[in-house]
């Protein structure tokens, strides 16, 4: 299957899904979200693939949701916004619940939805220049669909800080709070992710899948509650079309500070 916003490469047992919207730092739009969900299904069905890697073409891993798409959301109905948010939630779940281990190869920016993308992967490896942030509240948005995954990765205490402050998280801090597992020099990134992928591919496919399933079950005594994940899409659906998002997104594109109503 060919994709317009992704490129898939396979080397041995490792398939790399390249986010391929480099001019926009691989921002997530409707097409990319649909294609990523489809690609995860395709790679999970492909018995020659044992490990999946997510990576970004160009300067960044992923700049989060496409803000032009978010800006257009103001004109969508609540139902349309809900459907869109559910598709994003489904994409995140398709990665989190992948039966095969997924590694995030992170360079450049991994903002908001990009931070979420790092958090849904089993293993995240970043360069020392990578940067993260949950910028949503500065745009009149909320880290909703990515919320459970990021909070689970960094812990609730850290989540309360970073969800609200939107402050920049350096690679070193991302390592310290558990958002990424390893930080390496830029020129070591490919070698290191290849090494980790090779180690993962030594695991028995059935056992790897069972281990992932077991971890999900152990987390709260049952697999992660689908109702909770669904609820996150409902939370963001109306926010996306609200006044604050309208102002936050206008300010982003006009390259100015947003003016919030009291
Ligand atoms: C549930 C999920 C919600 C979300 O994810 S909300 C999205 C939150 N995302 C962000 O807050 C990231 C916004 N972008 C940035 O902060 C910066 O950009 C970067 C750090 C990623 C890169 O900075 P630099 O290297 O200085 O490049 P540049 O000139 O800012 O960007 C190049 C072009 O890319 C566009 N762009 C960047 N991010 C997005 C995006 N997320 N959606 C749509 N467009 C984006 C810009 O506007 C610009 O375009 P032009 O060259 O026409 O001015």
TrEMBL record:
Molecular function terms, GO-annotated: enoyl-CoA hydratase activity
Entry keyword Lyase: yes
E.C. number(s) listed in UniProt: 4.2.1.17
Top-level taxon of the source organism: Bacteria
InterPro entries: ClpP/crotonase-like_dom_sf (IPR029045), Enoyl-CoA_hydra/iso (IPR001753), Enoyl-CoA_hydra_C (IPR014748), Enoyl-CoA_Hydratase/Isomerase (IPR051683)
Classification via PANTHER family: ENOYL-COA HYDRATASE, POLYKETIDE BIOSYNTHESIS ENOYL-COA HYDRATASE PKSH-RELATED
Family, as annotated: Belongs to the enoyl-CoA hydratase/isomerase family.
Protein name: Enoyl-CoA hydratase
């Amino acid at each position: 299957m060919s994709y317009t916003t992704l490129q898939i490469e396979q080397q041995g047992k490792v398939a790399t899904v390249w986010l391929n919207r480099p001019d926009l730092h691989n921002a997530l739009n409707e097409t990319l979200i649909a294609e990523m969900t489809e690609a995860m299904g395709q790679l999970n069905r492909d018995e020659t693939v044992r490990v999946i890697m997510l990576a970004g073409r160009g300067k960044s891993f992923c700049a989060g949701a496409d803000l032009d798409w978010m800006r257009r959301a103001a004109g969508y109905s609540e139902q349309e916004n809900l459907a869109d948010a559910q598709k994003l939630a489904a994409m995140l779940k398709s990665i989190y619940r992948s039966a095969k281990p997924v590694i995030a190869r992170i360079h450049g920016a991994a903002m908001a939805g990009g931070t979420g993308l790092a958090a849904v992967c089993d293993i995240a490896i970043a360069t020392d220049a990578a940067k993260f942030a949950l910028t949503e509240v500065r745009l009149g948005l909320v880290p909703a669909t990515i919320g459970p995954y990021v909070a689970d990765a960094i812990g609730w205490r850290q989540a309360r800080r970073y969800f609200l402050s939107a402050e920049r998280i350096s690679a070193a801090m991302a390592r310290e709070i558990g958002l990424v597992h390893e930080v390496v020099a830029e020129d070591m990134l490919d070698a290191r992710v290849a090494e980790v992928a090779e180690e993962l591919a030594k695991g028995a496919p059935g056992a790897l899948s069972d281990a992932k399933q077991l971890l999900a079950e152990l987390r709260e005594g049952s697999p992660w509650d689908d109702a909770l994940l669904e609820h996150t899409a409902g939370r963001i659906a109306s926010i996306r079309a609200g006044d604050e998002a309208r102002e936050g997104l206008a300010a982003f594109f006009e390259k100015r500070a947003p003016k919030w109503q009291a």
